[in-house]
Design a protein that fits this description.
Number of domains: 3
Oligomer: single chain
Number of helices: 10
Structural class: mainly alpha
Strand content: under 5%
Strand order of the largest sheet: 1-2
Order of helices and strands: HHHHHEEHHHHH
Length: 277
C-alpha cells in the first residue's frame, strides 16, 4: 500500500487514509453487530453445551417416547426457521442407518419369535431396535439443527472456549475448510473420466466398480498432494504446529446463562420422567 505514495502522492495518501478508516469502522460495526445480535439469538456456547447434555441424556433413556418427541420438536424448529428442505436432506442418511439397525436387531436379537410366514422376527429385538432407532433419530436431529443454525467459526470458537484439545480443533478446521475442495476435485475427476469414456452407461457392475476404484485412488493421491502443498504454504506464511493463539472470548450474557441453567434443569427433568414412565 505504501508504494502508492511514490507513484501518485495525493491519491496514495487518500487511499491509505481511507483504507485505515474503513478498517476502524468495520471493527466497530462488527462489535456493534455482535452486541445487538447477542440479544436476539442464543450464544453458540450454550447451544453446544445443551446439545451435548441432551444427546448424552438421550443415549441413556430407556423408552422411545421422549427421543421421538425430541426429534419431532427439532423438525418443528427446522420448519419454523425455514430450513426444513436442507434439514431433511441431511437427515436421510442417519435415518437409513437407524432403520438398518432396527431391522438387524429384529432378525437377530431375542428369544420370543414372531412368525411372519417365511420369516421370523423377535419381539425383544424389535423393541430394542426401535429404541436404538429413536435414539439415533433424536441425536441426529439435534446435531443437524445445531450444525445448520451455527456457523463453522462459531462452533470452533465455542469448542476452544470449552478447552477442546488444540490438535482436534486444527484438524476440524482443516476438514471444514477443504471438504468442499475435496468434493469439487472428485467431480472434476469424474467428468474427466466420463469425457474419456470411463463411465459408459452399458458397462456392467464389475466395470463400474473398477472405474469407481480408480477414481477414488486418483482422488486420494491428489488429496495427499494437495495437503502437502497447503502445509508448505502455511509454513511459508509463518504457521508452526506449536503456535499459540490468543483467546479473547466475551463473557456469557446473563440471559444466556439463565437459559442454559433452565434447559439443563429441563434435561434432568426429562431423565426423571423417563425413569418414572
Amino acid at each position: 500500500m505504501i508504494e502508492w505514495l511514490t507513484l501518485d502522492p495525493l491519491n496514495g495518501i487518500a487511499t491509505t487514509i481511507g483504507f485505515f478508516i474503513s478498517l476502524i469502522i468495520g471493527r466497530y460495526l462488527r462489535l456493534w453487530r455482535e452486541r445487538n445480535m447477542r440479544g436476539k439469538m442464543t450464544d453458540p456456547r450454550i447451544k453446544i453445551l445443551i446439545s451435548f447434555l441432551l444427546i448424552t441424556a438421550i443415549t441413556v433413556m430407556k423408552h422411545w417416547y421422549l427421543p421421538i418427541a425430541i426429534a419431532i420438536l427439532c423438525i418443528a424448529f427446522a420448519a419454523k426457521l425455514r430450513i426444513i428442505r436442507d434439514y431433511g436432506k441431511k437427515l436421510i442418511f442417519p435415518l437409513v442407518l437407524a432403520l438398518f439397525i432396527f431391522i438387524a436387531q429384529g432378525f437377530t436379537y431375542g428369544v420370543n419369535a414372531i412368525h411372519l410366514g417365511i420369516i421370523s422376527v423377535y419381539s425383544e429385538g424389535l423393541n430394542y431396535g426401535f429404541l436404538i432407532f429413536s435414539r439415533v433419530f433424536a441425536s441426529a436431529s439435534i446435531l443437524l439443527l445445531l450444525a445448520i443454525t451455527t456457523s463453522e467459526n462459531e462452533l470452533l470458537e465455542s469448542m476452544r472456549y470449552f478447552r477442546v484439545p488444540k490438535t482436534l480443533l486444527e484438524i476440524s478446521s482443516f476438514m471444514v475448510r477443504y471438504i468442499k475442495t475435496f468434493s469439487s476435485e472428485g467431480k472434476q475427476l469424474k467428468l474427466a473420466q466420463e469425457s474419456r469414456c470411463g463411465f459408459p452407461k452399458n458397462a456392467g457392475f464389475t466395470k463400474k466398480m473398477r472405474n469407481v476404484a480408480s477414481l477414488l485412488g486418483a482422488l486420494i493421491t491428489r488429496a495427499f498432494a494437495r495437503s502437502e502443498e497447503v502445509y508448505r504454504a502455511m509454513l511459508s506464511r509463518g504457521w508452526k504446529p506449536e503456535l499459540r493463539y490468543s483467546i479473547n472470548t466475551q463473557p456469557l450474557d446473563k440471559r444466556d446463562l439463565i437459559l442454559g441453567i433452565m434447559l439443563s434443569s429441563g434435561i434432568l427433568v426429562l431423565l426423571g420422567l423417563d425413569r418414572l414412565v
